[in-house]
Structures are given as C-alpha cells and as structure tokens.
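Quick note —
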Amino acid sequence: MDKYTPHLGHFALVEACAQPGCPVCFLRKDAVTTSLRMVLADYVDDPDLRQELCDSLGYCGKHAWMLPAIERGNLLTVAVMYQDILERELPKTLTSGEKQPSRGSLFHGIRQLFGGQKPASPSSSFPIQRQCPACKLGDDVETQALQLLLKALAKGDEEMQSALQESDGLCLPHLNRALELAKTDTSRELLLAFARETLAAIRHELGEFIRKHDYRFQHESIDEERYSWKRAMNLIAGTPEDVS
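Predicted structure written out below.
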C-alpha cells in the first residue's frame, strides 16, 4: 500500500470534524461564505468579476439572499451588483427569448392538454438562471473533500479515522455521495460503520431528551441531549449554508 501523505486539505478536513454537524457541509459553507465575502469586498473595483457575475445572472436564490446578510450596512455593493445585471445582461437575455410562446397563458395550457401546440424545446428557451458561481464552488469543494476523505480512509490514516469517528458524522446526502465515489471496500465499510455509530448515538440522545420531558423524570437534568434534535436534522438533511 502506498504511503498516505497528508496535505493542507487533510488538516482542514480534520479540523472540520471538530465542528458541529457534517464536516463536509462545514467546509462547503465556509468556502461559499468566504467567497461571497471576497466578492463583496472586490466587486466594485474588479471589472472581470463584474462581468462574470453578469454572465451568470448573479447567484441562485439561496446564495443571493446570503449577500445582504453578509454585507449588512447600506448594501451599496449588492445594489451595484444587481444594477449591473439588470442594465447589462438581463435585457439581452430577455430579448433573446422574446419570440417564445407564453407558456403560462390559459389558452396555451389548454392547447397542450388536448394535443395542440407542443411546448418549446429546452434548447429554444432562454436561460433565466444560469449556473450559480457559489453553487459550483460548493460542489467542487464538496467533491474534493469527499475524495480526500476516501483516500485517507482507504490508506488507513488513523488521524482521519479518529477525527471522523469523533465527529457528528457525514450527513446522509454526503454519505450517499461518498459511497458513490468510494473505490475500495475498506473506505465503504468504514463509512458505514461510522454512520451506524452516529445513528445509534443520536437515537439514544433523542430517546433521553424525550424521556426527560416525561413528568416522572423531570427532576433529571437535560444535558447534551438538548441538542439531539439538531444533530438528527443535521444528519438527515445536512447543515444549512445560511449566514449565522
């Protein structure tokens, strides 16, 4: 077996395992939030960045609404950003699709229902929303983190195994993605073993949290299990990317 040599990404993932929630969600959120902060700091004075965001029509809904939460203050940069999109890019986009039929009209819908006019093909419609730069960055970071994790597990790296075992575990979406990317039985078996341990621990904490709300046991203090519902949600759905 080739020797596993840790690098900066390895240590970032180990540190992420010490944070609440899924470590891959943490890295994704951190990368996206850092990127949005940098965009807000550089946007006005960076013409290439301004054009890039015009080309993408800005961000998706989730990441667009993170901008004012990050910038706060008078939100001047957000205003300039969306003025650029509205004045420089959106008119071209709307013009390119102005000959398309109105797919939302009542009569158009009735014609489709009874086998009349066929809807416009996807290739002939104009792209109202293009790929969100923050989503792309998040996807790239997520894939790199999972590949690094799988490599470390496959090579038997004890530091990574210990960090993952002591973490809140991978959320189900990232566990599923990791199992799809895994190339060795060793990494798959470890991932599933850790997931079973995490599931058992959270189920126990949830049971204790619920039990201690029974009037017969209300004299018992509620300790770490008070956060069991949050751990359960993080496990099932992943950690949200909103700005906290």
